[in-house]
Structure formats: C-alpha cells, structure tokens
Amino acid sequence: MAIVVRIDVELAKRKMSVGEFAEKVGLTPANVAVLKNGRAKAVRFSTLEAMCRVLECQPGDLLEFVEDDEEAS
Prior knowledge:
Oligomer: single chain
Structural class: mainly alpha
Helix content: 55-70%
C-alpha cells in the first residue's frame, strides 16, 4: 500500500510557493519537502487540518491511496 501526497498539485493550482505555504501552515520548508516527497511516516491531524485550511481543500485532495503492484496481483 502506498499513500501518495498531492501537496505539489494543490500548491500549483493556487500558484503558492513552498515557502509561503510552510509559513502559513507553521512548518519549516524542509518539513513540507519531506511531506511532498512522500518521505513522511506520519502526519498529525492538526497539521493536516492546517494544510487544508490554508489550501481550502479536503484531506482527500492532499492524500491518495494507491495499491502497490504486488498487492494487486
């Protein structure tokens, strides 16, 4: 199972930089990069809520479940 993070898509739709997003959410740009690149092991609900508030979106707009090829077989 894989959870794909779509922050970059939502940022592009809004023409918002990672730095601006990080500042508004209360994260460091490095932590946003960890989330964006799928290296995060967990996300706090309070962080997810802040990201949704800043981007005016739903959690499902930021996170997507994608089955691994092995599991689909």
